[in-house]
């Protein structure tokens, strides 16, 4: 039975997360279920290129570097950059995390991850010894939509087919049937969005997956729909959600070779030592001060805010709280 696109992408993420090596494209083709069925090297290359772009659109930090024992380029996902920083959760958010944890503990997910790891070992890929104890990050079902909707949308995008589904623009609105030429799926701040051309409205539209009702149905011939060249799916979602509105800029020092997520967000100003440690200063556009403060605090002493002072104080308060010390130097009662 052919491997679905969703399963292939999950296998690829597990593969690239489970080893610190940079894996060549050929090693990935041999190791990851879903690629071995490619009719030729060229077909595999096209599929792998689409999958790499898909991972980047989903916000997954795919790194490239020289593969061990080879002059070829290799790929991996840096676990430090992939994992979430420390965050503060209210009661509602904590409940959502609990739902996600129960989803990961389901027999289907456990079986899929363990099978993938066995295949990697059989192919000679070095798997981190502690990886089996750490589940791959998952997303609460309420924010990403149903598994069936996600699977059918990704399959339609891969096949180049249009889709039809029922969607509502707000939780209190009635469902309306939409016909869409899908270009891709993007995740932003825990929510998932379909981006494409709305046929009925003859315009580019985004649809939150949690507001799409089953079933999603693919229609029309294959290879009839493709993302137009030059289209930036994440920029479209940023604009629609307001996440692209930059409210200020921060200057942050980061340790050499660390804090890769901050490096992706900003641009390097200069190389500089701080406290006798080598590193670089970054200029980072800020859309949410609270979010960037949590992100920086999650990197501990590998990231230091240089300006503005208000952000520096916010990060320091979060670090004091995490250490069990209140802002006046006393002990936090938990």
UniProtKB/TrEMBL annotation:
<dbReference type="InterPro" id="IPR057727">
    <property type="entry name" value="WCX_dom"/>
</dbReference>
<dbReference type="InterPro" id="IPR051534">
    <property type="entry name" value="CBASS_pafABC_assoc_protein"/>
</dbReference>
<protein>
    <submittedName>
        <fullName>YafY family transcriptional regulator</fullName>
    </submittedName>
</protein>
<feature type="domain" description="WYL">
    <location>
        <begin position="150"/>
        <end position="214"/>
    </location>
</feature>
<dbReference type="InterPro" id="IPR026881">
    <property type="entry name" value="WYL_dom"/>
</dbReference>
<dbReference type="Pfam" id="PF13280">
    <property type="entry name" value="WYL"/>
</dbReference>
<dbReference type="Pfam" id="PF25583">
    <property type="entry name" value="WCX"/>
</dbReference>
<feature type="domain" description="WCX">
    <location>
        <begin position="249"/>
        <end position="320"/>
    </location>
</feature>
């Amino acid at each position: 039975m052919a491997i679905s696109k969703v399963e292939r992408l999950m296998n690829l993420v597990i593969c690239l997360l489970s080893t610190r090596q940079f894996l060549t494209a050929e090693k990935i083709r041999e190791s990851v279920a879903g690629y071995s069925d490619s009719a030729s090297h060229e077909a595999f290359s096209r599929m792998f290129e689409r999958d790499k772009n898909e991972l980047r659109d989903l916000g997954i930090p795919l790194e490239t570097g020289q593969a061990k024992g080879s002059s070829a380029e290799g790929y991996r996902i840096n676990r430090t950059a992939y994992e979430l920083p420390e965050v503060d959760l209210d009661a509602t958010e904590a409940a959502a995390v609990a739902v996600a944890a129960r989803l990961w503990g389901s027999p289907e997910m456990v079986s899929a991850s363990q099978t993938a790891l066995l295949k990697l070992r059989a192919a000679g890929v070095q798997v981190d010894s502690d990886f089996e104890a750490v589940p791959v990050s998952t997303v609460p079902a309420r924010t990403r939509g149903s598994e069936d909707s996600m699977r059918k949308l990704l399959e339609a995008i891969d096949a180049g087919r249009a889709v039809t589904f029922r969607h509502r623009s707000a939780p209190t609105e009635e469902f309306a049937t939409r016909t869409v030429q899908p270009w891709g799926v993007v995740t932003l701040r825990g929510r998932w969005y379909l981006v494409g051309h709305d046929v009925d409205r003859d315009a580019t539209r985004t649809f939150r997956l949690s507001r799409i009702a089953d079933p999603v149905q693919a229609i029309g011939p294959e290879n009839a729909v493709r993302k137009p060249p030059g289209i930036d799916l994440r920029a479209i979602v940023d604009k629609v959600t307001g996440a692209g509105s930059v409210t200020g800029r921060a200057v942050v020092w980061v340790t050499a070779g660390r804090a890769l997520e901050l490096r992706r967000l900003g641009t390097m100003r200069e190389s500089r030592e701080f406290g006798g440690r080598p590193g670089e200063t970054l200029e980072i556009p800020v859309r949410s001060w609270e979010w960037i403060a949590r992100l920086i605090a999650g990197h501990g002493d590998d990231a230091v805010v240089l300006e503005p002072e208000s952000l520096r104080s916010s990060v320091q308060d979060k670090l004091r709280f995490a250490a069990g010390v209140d802002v006046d130097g006393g002990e936090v009662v938990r």
